[in-house]
């Protein structure tokens, strides 16, 4: 491969990244699939084809086929065909991959972002004596008024990814994006 071909290949990947930056999550249109951590990679495969790697948020998430369609549509519209969309399940998606910007956008949208990080790869603190009992999750703050006085109404909200909470102070119900 000569230098000119390499430059062309890089330009296509750059263009694909720009285009995919604009693809929103089907369920939460204020954040992009890149910001949610669903878009894992845009690369040149070994056979030279443009390859986009996506990881579903929750297994069996019905939005996943929609996301693949949206990715394909965006790439087609930008004239980036041929390409390949790879779905990878390992490592599994985690709410830790949601960018800080996206957490702010979720809050502004009325969805409480996940509190803390799952930190699945981090070692458990040595001072925690009973490691097999899950630590109760802190109640999320109300995304509207910021109050910490919230209560859970249901384990599942508008989707399985979210729990339904209510703010005790402003009385508004809201979705909480559960740490995962
Ligand atoms: Zn409130």
Automatic annotation (TrEMBL):
Residues 15-76 form the MIP18 family-like domain. It comes from the Bacteria. Pfam families: FeS_assembly_P (PF01883), Zn_ribbon_PaaD (PF23451). Coiled coil: none annotated. Residues 140-178 form the PaaD zinc beta ribbon domain. InterPro entries: Fe-S_Maturation_MIP18 (IPR052339), FSCA_dom_sf (IPR034904), MIP18-like (IPR002744), PaaD-like (IPR011883), Zn_ribbon_PaaD (IPR056572). PANTHER family: 1,2-PHENYLACETYL-COA EPOXIDASE, SUBUNIT D-RELATED, FE-S PROTEIN MATURATION AUXILIARY FACTOR YITW. This is Ring-1,2-phenylacetyl-CoA epoxidase subunit PaaD. It comes from Paraburkholderia caballeronis.
